[in-house]
Every structure is written in structure tokens, then in C-alpha cells.
Amino acid sequence: MADLAAILAGPGRDVELDLSGVTFVDSSGWAAVEAAVEALEAGGVAARVGRMSEPVRRVRAVLGAAQLTPAA
């Protein structure tokens, strides 16, 4: 994940993860999303989860992750 932040680092860089096409995600997948957002932010890149499919929304809600990773 640190490599991703290094690639995207720079002034004014923003990343929005579009998860609208995701048909399956579990707790491990959501953990990877959160790790990516955290790594990007640690590298100075503004990151957030944007559009989400219904399966992603359900897992996010079940995990109580709504406070951790705000969505668009």
C-alpha cells in the first residue's frame, strides 16, 4: 500500500474509490479498502470511498465501518 501512496503523492492529489461494480466483498476485502485509504492518506493523498454497490454497503454497515470510511 505504501507504494500506491508514493505513486499518487503530490499536491492536490485526490483519490475516490469507485466500488459500484463490486459484486462480492467480505470483511477481508473491506479491510483491504480501509488499508488502501489509510495508506493513501498517510502519503498525503486525500482518499475516500465513492460509489458503492449494495453488497459493499451491506458489509460496510454490518462491520460498523460507516464512521471509519465516509462515502460520497
Write the layout of secondary structure elements.
Layout: H1 2-8, E1 14-19, H2 27-42, E2 46-52, H3 54-62
Parallel strand pairs: 1-2
Give an overview of the whole structure.
With 72 residues, this protein is of the alpha+beta class. It has one domain (2-67). 44% of the residues lie in helices and 18% in strands. The protein is built from three helices and two strands. The protein has helices at 2-8, 27-42, 54-62; strands spanning 14-19, 46-52. Strands 1-2 form a two-stranded parallel ribbon. Helix 1 (2-8) crosses helix 2 (27-42). The protein is elongated, with a radius of gyration of 12 Å. The protein starts with a helix and ends in a 10-residue tail after the last helix.
Choose one word for the global shape. Answer: elongated
Number of helices: 3
Largest sheet: 2 strands, parallel
> What is the chains' assembly state?
single chain
Give me the Rg, rounded.
12 Å
**Arithmetic mean of pLDDT:** 81
What are the key terms here?
two-stranded parallel ribbon; 72 residues; single chain; 3 helices
Task: Report a brief summary of the structure.
The protein has helices at 2-8, 27-42, 54-62, and strands at 14-19, 46-52.
